[in-house]
Amino acid sequence: MDLLYKIFIDPFVQMGGAPDLLIQTLWEGLVSGVLYALIALGFVLIFKASGVFNFAQGIMVVFAALTLVGLHSKGVPAFLALALTIGVMLVLAFGVERLMLRPLVNQPDIILFMATFGLTYFLIGLGEIIFGGEPKVMITSELYLPKGALEWKVFGGFVSFQKIDIAAAIIASLMVATLAVFFQKTRIGRALRAVADSHKAALSVGISLEQIWVIVWFAAGIVALATGIMWGARSDVSFALQILALKALPVLILGGFTSIPGAIVGGIIIGVGEKLGEFYWGPLLGSGIESWLAYMIALVFLLFRPQGLFGERIIERI
């Protein structure tokens, strides 16, 4: 009985007894959720264009952030280093299209999926050769990202808002909204949706798969760069960040692999859910709950809606 009380009642008593801590937890979960949504967006863009889960998206986050920091460490001004890093992601997009996607077109999806594994380890090796394996400090001040915190007095306590978290939430939200509008309202967006529906049908109406793939991988590279800057500003830039990017998998399960709105909603659910779980249920279930709770939420969700909140239900007639 005591265990049931600790699981089902005590956490909610704590929430009501200290609403300022609840607001603090919800805010931190919201920021994490928006950044998870930004990571998931890179996966969604590539999956919509090729039907392949891009396992390399995580290392693209690390590689973009390392390129930015590495160029600046060589004496390149911060914003010039940012522009050059964007150029590197464009070169990567062309290279992936020419050397990986084009030779494997019309191959089974598992072949392309395994190719992204190869791309992952290629970028890991290249990154370690060029930049080394030690953690780097993100050039936060040089990019004029804010530091410090704001405090809000509420319910007899204080809620602290880190300025970098506010900037991260705003920048990530703007990027997600911009990309959503771009792919929903523009000609390229319509072409992307056509490619997602059928490669052969898209080719028959004159849509170039090569151009679409370059655009999509470049967009995913820009998303990876923004993600690397935001997460790197909150911690260090290291190869451990690619593990964080795998949090996009439960986000995609919740939202649907082809839905941009789903990436947003799924990211917020996972971000807020794992923060609440860590703070209120973590002491009961043991430390480290934040590392696995997102996957448990996704597993439970799969039992009731396998296609995700915004995914398409696939019906096959036999």
TrEMBL record:
The organism's place on the tree of life at top rank: Bacteria
Q: How does it sit in the membrane?
A: Multi-pass membrane protein
GO molecular function terms here? transmembrane transporter activity
* Keyword terms: Amino-acid transport, Cell membrane, Membrane, Transmembrane, Transmembrane helix, Transport
Q: Where is the signal peptide?
A: none
Q: Which biological process, per GO, is one annotated for this protein?
A: amino acid transport
Asked if Transmembrane helix is a keyword of the record, the answer is: yes
- Per the annotation, which location comes first and is thus the protein's main one? membrane
| Location(s) in or outside the cell | Cell membrane
Put simply, this protein is called Branched-chain amino acid ABC transporter permease
Q: What is the species listed in this Swiss-Prot or TrEMBL entry?
A: Pseudorhodoplanes sinuspersici
